[in-house]
């Protein structure tokens, strides 16, 4: 039989889930689950551009000394939805592993189409390069990470030098990212976001595979039917064939959202997403 405390917690979570967005409910559940202590938000709403969506937040381990490795996390949402406020569970988890975690918002469809959201990602990284030292981060040790559309943005920034930030990125992690997904489904989210590009190949991270790319870790769930796992295996193969360093980890029983939930405390037992990502990043960001 459940304890009174457990029943009260379940009642609170039920009310939270009914009243809030799914990510809001997840953040609430995450806060009620032990672990990831000693983390604080140190910046909320710093502007890296003039648009209201061009803002970011920063999370840090409490009491950390010395410049910390920096991780810029891009959330997903089909390039047409998302708010950084919903991703506190991911930022907390990664900051607890010793990173200074930056979570930017970016402009979305229909306000912008290609390449507006990638330009915003690059602008956020340029802000990091200019300002992160003042917040305890090391601008010489910056990595990127993203989920779904956020992984698409992160990997384009890491691979395609036209955005002016690729050479600053020391490592990149993608969760369930679309990297090689032509042709677009007519009228679908990718078509709406990227279909205006003069050359559609420019929207594909695999088009920019190179042997001197930063080390890549591409994580994917084998049950993902939204973004097929072949996106990760094909990009990794392309980079490795050119002499680069790319690893793939595929998780059985994990779908498109489940791989993101693996960063949250209540669902970490489903797949070692957090451990795999943080161990990889620390390997390449440790002095």
TrEMBL record:
Residues 1-17 form the signal peptide. Pfam families: BD-FAE (PF20434). The keyword Hydrolase applies. Residues 56-237 form the BD-FAE-like domain. InterPro entries: AB_hydrolase_fold (IPR029058), BD-FAE-like_dom (IPR049492), GDXG_lipolytic_enzyme (IPR050300). Keywords: Hydrolase, Signal. PANTHER family: AB HYDROLASE SUPERFAMILY PROTEIN C4A8.06C, CARBOXYLESTERASE. This is Alpha/beta hydrolase. It comes from Sandarakinorhabdus cyanobacteriorum.
């Amino acid at each position: 039989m459940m304890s009174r405390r457990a029943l009260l917690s379940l009642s609170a979570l039920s009310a939270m889930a009914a009243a809030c967005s799914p990510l809001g409910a997840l953040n609430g559940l995450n806060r009620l689950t032990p672990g990831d202590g000693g983390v604080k938000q140190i910046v909320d709403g710093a502007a890296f551009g003039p648009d209201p969506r061009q803002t970011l937040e920063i999370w840090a381990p409490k009491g950390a000394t010395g410049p910390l490795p920096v991780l810029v996390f891009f959330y997903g949402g089909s390039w047409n939805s998302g708010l950084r406020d919903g991703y506190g569970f991911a930022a907390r988890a990664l900051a607890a592993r010793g990173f200074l975690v930056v979570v930017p918002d970016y402009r979305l469809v229909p306000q912008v189409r290609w390449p507006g959201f990638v330009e915003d990602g690059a602008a956020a990284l340029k802000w990091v390069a200019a300002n992160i030292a003042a917040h305890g981060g090391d601008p010489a040790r910056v990595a990127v990470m993203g989920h779904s559309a956020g992984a698409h943005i992160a990997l384009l920034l890491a691979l395609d030098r036209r955005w002016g930030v690729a050479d600053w990125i020391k490592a990149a992690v993608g969760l369930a990212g679309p990297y090689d997904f032509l042709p677009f489904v007519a009228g679908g989210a990718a078509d709406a976001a990227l279909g205006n590009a003069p050359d559609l190949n420019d929207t594909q991270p695999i088009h920019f595979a190179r042997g001197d790319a930063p080390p890549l870790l591409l994580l994917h769930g084998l049950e993902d039917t939204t973004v097929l796992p072949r996106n990760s295996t094909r990009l990794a193969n392309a980079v490795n064939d050119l002499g680069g360093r790319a690893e793939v980890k595929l998780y059985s029983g994990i779908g498109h959202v489940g791989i993101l939930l693996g960063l949250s405390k209540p669902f970490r037992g489903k797949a070692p997403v957090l451990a795999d990502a943080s161990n990889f990043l620390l390997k390449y960001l440790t002095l």
